[in-house]
Amino acid sequence: MKEISYDMLLPNCRVVTQKVGGSGTVIYSEKNEDTGGYSTYVLTNCHVVIGNIEVKKKWSSLLKHDVKMDFLTSADVHFFKWQYQSRAVGVTAIDSDIVAYDPDHDLALLKLRDIDQVPFAAKLYPKGEENQLRLGVPVIAIGAAMGEPPVITTGRLSQFAREIDNREFWLSTAPTIFGNSGGAVYLEETEELIGVPAINAVSLAFTPDPITHLSFFIPITRVYEFLDEQMFRFIYDSNFTEKGEADSRESERRNEELKIAQKEVLGGEDDEE
């Protein structure tokens, strides 16, 4: 195994929420032309931040009745300070906002409130090239296991297309444990992110205990699906811009509200008839 490089270690961070903690990975930190500062985004699991998401009813002046809305509490992101490229000697905590989440994908995206650039972001495995990956290739898992500074484990890519709850997962032999959720699985050869640890393998036949030497992770294909569906495509595609995608999300929200309002009006007319 080759020496672990900073390109894989530094993007890893610890995510601390109101109820639980986990890991995260910086996947974007670029200049925002509108603000003059830098926008930094951290990828993590939805179940890591779900305790900071509350759905409540709130009056809508457009629809003239209560609607369900999500209220999002900020999460702390801890970046580690390193000496000798190997020893964690402290942390820097930065507030972040939950800007996207999807319980079905079990993915979430955090945006740091700090406008300074984070000089390290994970390289994403190229979209559409997942068929080039082969079983047995060496992989590296990095995450804040048990709340500790990043723990590094190694293994091999062991299985594709495992369906769990109607979603695809990949399996590796790089051990992970509680706290690794939201971290990173890298392809050792290219140091590119190929997935996000999410589930420790469990033996249903003999014991409900986690089997920590086998770990399912959310594949890079689903990461791209999440970014596409949530309209954060600028993170991996320079043909899109941060502002353009924000405008698209706002337009989509307004269109959905209008559709609901129209249904309410038509429903009222049907009732009168």
UniProtKB/TrEMBL annotation:
Residues 244-273 are annotated as: Disordered. InterPro entries: Peptidase_S1_PA, Peptidase_S1_PA_chymotrypsin. Residues 244-262 have a biased composition (Basic and acidic residues). Gene3D superfamilies: Trypsin-like serine proteases. This is Putative trypsin-like peptidase domain containing protein. It comes from viral metagenome. The lineage of its organism: unclassified sequences, metagenomes, organismal metagenomes.
